[in-house]
What does this fold into?
Amino acid sequence: MSGWDVRLAWRTFNLNWIPIAALGVVLLLGMAGMGFSLEPVAVGFVAAVVFGLALIVYVHAFVKAEAADPKLIFWLGTTAQVILVTAIIGPLSYIANALNWPLQDQALLSIDRAMGLDPESIAAFANDHQWLAKCFDTGYGFIKWPLLGVPVILAMTLRLIRLQQFVLALIIALALTIVISVFVPAVGTFYGLNLSPAERFPFINSSFYAAQLRDILALRDGSLRHLELFNMAGIVSFPSFHAASAVLYMWALWPVRGIRSAAIVINTLTIIAAPVIGAHYIIDVIGGIALAAGSILLAKHLFRIHASRNAADAEANSSDKTMPQLVLGRG
It folds into this structure.
């Protein structure tokens, strides 16, 4: 890996702030236009964490210059970006649902059945095999940890370009998820089937579904307009971002041989668990996988354009002291 690769990753890292900032502007406009507010303590905490991490990164990069550690810079920097974009997308998903586009549960359920798949039978099978229901519950909860784990692993193994592509693909996937969810809002399979999961499937953890049902209905009747950042539920059904994120994580960690197998097993479990624990329609899962694949391809395409436009400039300015020349020691 050459110094040019590090400089290219650094430039891409800086560019990744732009779409995040754009999403932030959309959030502010949406809140103002729809009468939403955010609980300030949680927002302040997240802002402080992101600012603190970014401050460490830029101070270290510019003060240390040639002696700056790329592992530290890209680990903390991309962690800050991931925290910020996910904190923005959560409230945006609530604003999108509050636009009150007609619920599409029956349409999604019809697509599942047209494919020969019955969500009720799938849930019943998991409920009748308690060990399976517990595995699904564990797998579904894995979505959050790789968000912080991927930056650590890729930075420590100096897969810096893959790390920047991952962040960009994540941003693209999250943004597209919000746009699609405006026009295809849905509560989930249990709502579409008109049944109570707590009564029908007592061994399945239905707390995720209960939270999304509560918040979606409150958003649509206008009673929920004050949002608590740390208490928001995942309210997007189509496309399934659990499925999308699992694909993104597997792709991001694929080059790391020591972790590849574990990443495949864990994230495959997350995908399989989505229809049961997350009450996702099968078409939600298919849509999420397709969304992730498209986001990865688009992120790689945009990166290639960026790399080709900056190759000559990066080579000509390899000794430019205005930009940190990060060392590549593996120690």
